[in-house]
TrEMBL record:
Domain of life per record: Bacteria
SUPFAM superfamilies noted in UniProt: EAL domain-like (SSF141868)
SMART domains in the cross-refs: EAL
Protein source organism: Roseibium porphyridii
Domain EAL span(s) in chain numbering: 28-278
Pfam families listed in its UniProt record: EAL
Name assigned to this protein: EAL domain-containing protein
Annotated CDD domains: EAL (cd01948)
Length: 286
């Protein structure tokens, strides 16, 4: 375990074994070994994080974020189980479950709301993906233009042709395609220009860098203007403070999501949120 840790570390190659390492390793093993049972027990469910118009406060869409309710470990975050599902090949059926359930839940929400779902590289390259998505949409009676898939910049390989082909097929079905985590790693112009993204999601870490360093601020401004010129929408991730919100609105950013407004929540909490907002609007108009 110490050896593995030393390999992962970038700077210091010396790693001493600690009991915390063992606990982490055991947790990872447990997650791996209970994956197949989780499918049988229907333990995977989507939570939803609302996306807002930063100027009006209106909710414009929701992002589905997978959660696993484990009988022993409690709620497990996707950062722990997505890679496990990738390594066992279960990611394809996990994707279907999340999409199926999210589309069904979307029926209960206002009809102008969009639904964003996250997909990894192997999901994108899976041959049956467009058919599977259309099936889920048809079963739930949801129009294709309400669905958006998010694909992370961190997952883009060096050879991009097959990715562009798969993403184009998705767009041909009427489903929107969004570049997630832009600026978390590369912020490469090539990624912006080689494909006609419907939306670019700016990573919170890029925004942080821009607010702390003038040169990064210049590149962010240039990226925002390029994205606007290319007719893609922008969504800012991780909006956590009012100061950040004000500064982003000043920069011309329209859409965002983050803990300042709301974290991810289950469908019951989301419905409560819509009802309480509708009630507040009703009272304000009296
Ligand atoms: P992501 O797509 O970048 O999702 C945003 C993550 O940021 C979510 O973490 C969300 O809970 C968190 N977040 C939201 N607002 C804030 C904020 O204001 N500040 C900060 N610091 N964080 C915020 P989560 O739910 O743990 O998801 C982690 C990642 O797992 C996601 O990152 C996404 O890449 C992946 N993921 C989630 N669900 C799925 C899924 O169904 N399929 C696939 N393939 N990947 C998924
Ligand atoms: Ca995402
Ligand atoms: Ca993201």
């Amino acid at each position: 375990m110490a050896l593995e840790n030393a390999f992962v570390k970038k700077q210091s190659r010396v790693s001493l074994f600690t009991p915390a390492m063992q606990a982490k390793y055991q947790r990872r093993e447990k997650i791996h070994s209970s994956l197949s049972n989780a499918f049988e027990n229907h333990d995977f469910i989507p939570h939803f994080q609302p996306q807002f118009n930063l100027k009006t406060g209106k909710i414009i869409g929701v992002e589905a974020l997978a959660r696993w309710q484990h009988n022993e470990l409690g709620w497990i975050s996707p950062s722990e189980f997505i890679s496990a599902a990738e390594s066992t090949g279960d990611i394809i059926r996990l994707g279907r479950i999340i999409l199926e359930k999210s589309c069904m839940q979307l029926q209960r929400l206002p009809a102008d709301l969009t639904l964003s779902v996250n997909l990894t590289l192997s999901q994108i390259l899976n041959e049956g993906l467009p058919e599977m998505m259309l099936e889920c949409l048809t079963d739930a009676g949801i129009e294709a233009h309400r669905l958006k898939i998010e694909f992370s910049e961190t997952q883009l390989p060096t050879k991009l042709d097959s990715v562009w082909r798969s993403l184009s097929e998705i767009q041909e079905c009427g489903i929107a395609v969004s570049l997630d985590d832009f600026g978390s790693k590369f912020a490469a112009l090539r990624h912006l220009t080689e494909f006609e993204w419907d939306e670019i999601k700016i990573d919170a870490r890029y925004v942080d860098r821009a607010f702390n360093n003038e040169r990064h601020a210049e590149t962010l401004l240039a990226a925002l203007s390029l994205i606007a010129n290319m007719k893609s929408n922008t969504v800012i991730e991780g909006v956590e403070t009012v100061e950040r919100l004000d500064a982003l609105v000043e920069l011309g950013c329209d859409h965002g999501q983050g803990y300042l407004f709301s974290g991810p929540m289950d469908i019951d909490q989301l419905i409560t949120l819509f009802f309480s907002r509708a009630r507040a609007e009703e009272l304000a108009s009296v």
